[in-house]
Amino acid sequence: MQLEYYHVDSFTTEQFKGNPAGVCLLKEDLPDAVLLGIARENGLAETAFLKKSGNNYGIRWFTPDIEMDLCGHATLASAYVIKKFFEPESTRVLFTSASGELAVTFDGQLLRMDFPGRMPVPAGLPEEIFGSLSIKPAAVYKSRDYVLLYESEDDVRNLTVDRIMFDKVNLGPGGVCVTAEGRSFDFVSRFFTPQSTILEDPVTGSAHCSLIPFWSERFGKRKMTAQQLSERSGILYCENGQNERVVIAGNARLYSRGVLEIDMQ
Predict the structure, then answer these.
(1) What is the DSSP letter of 84?
(2) How far is CA 15 from the centre of its chain?
(3) What is the CATH number of the domain that holds 89?
(4) What are the E-state strand segments in 27-157?
(5) Are 145 and 210 a contacting pair, CB within 8 Å?
(6) Distance (Å, rounded) from C-alpha 48 to C-alpha 65?
(7) What is the largest CA-CA distance in the chain?
(8) pLDDT at position 157, please?
(9) Which of 187, 169, 69, 70 is nearest to 125 (CA)?
(10) Same domain for 110 and 127?
């Protein structure tokens, strides 16, 4: 079986920046074990699998380890592929997913994703995670992910994680997001996942489902810009919307395209 495959860097206009995602087009449903195997073979943080259904697309996201309930950068990459190669006249694409319907609209070179918001609430932090952090947070919150508030951008930038201790905790599809008020951007962040093939995610769209309402409330404004301070880095344009929805926008660029040869026997 041959599957169309695209490698896209999300939340960037620069080569070798942003968060790389695989996008795979399916004509029929494949076993989860095959989808996970493809994601492992790709070795990227996420691979999105798309299957057209009427005017919409079903979407699923796999890391090299598990299926995720939501992934921002791979959704952005998927919308980019649909617009560039399949529906160039489209102004909007609608995905159906485990997290409900996800709309992406096209605004010039910018892709705007409408996602569910997840306001984090004050919480405790597992001792293993707390002990693994070289710099301790000023406050701890939780939604799907732990959100750790730091006093400065430098704290977020300079933070290191003791992986041996960090990996003693399993957070399932969740992770640990560290964040602070930014200097050139409204806020900055980094994102880590314990017991994952990829410890630090380059740019995490889904984490901004929590960061946007969190910082919107603190700043008292709806529209913000954000930067993720990973080695690859990325820029996100954020808006706290209505009815507990958020808008996460960014750019994308194609790195490669090709065909996967999958043996189904």
Answers:
(1) I
(2) 18
(3) 3.10.310.10
(4) 46-53, 56-62, 67-68, 92-97, 100-107, 110-116, 121-122, 139-142, 146-149
(5) yes
(6) 14
(7) 57
(8) 98
(9) 169
(10) no
Pick from 231, 220, 135: nearest CA to 179: 135
Please tell me whether residues 125 and 239 are part of one structural domain: yes
Mean pLDDT to the nearest integer, 168-192: 97
24 burial class (0-12, 13-18, 19+ CB within 10 angstroms)? buried
Which of 173, 164, 238 has the alpha carbon at shortest distance from 201? 173
DSSP character for 243?
A: T
**What tens digit of pLDDT does each residue of 86-136 get?**
999 999 999 999 999 999 999 999 999 999 999 999 999 999 999 999 999
C-alpha distance from residue 25 to each of 1, 22, 54 (Å): 12, 10, 15
The Cα 178–Cα 207 span in angstroms is 10
- Residue 28's CB is within 10 A of a number of other CB atoms, namely 7
151 is known as an active-site residue? no
Measured CA to CA, the distance from residue 30 to residue 17 in angstroms comes to: 31
Q: What is the pLDDT of residue 60?
A: 98
50 & 94 share domain: yes
Helix or strand run (H / E) with residue 261: strand 252-261
Residue 171 and residue 123 in contact, taking contact as beta carbons nearer than 8 Å: no
Tell me which residue of 69, 76, 98 sits closest to 236, measured CA to CA. Answer: 76
Instruction: Tell me which of 4, 46, 67, 127 is the catalytic residue.
Output: 46
126 & 239 share domain: yes
Determine the structural domain holding residue 168 and report its residue range: 121-243
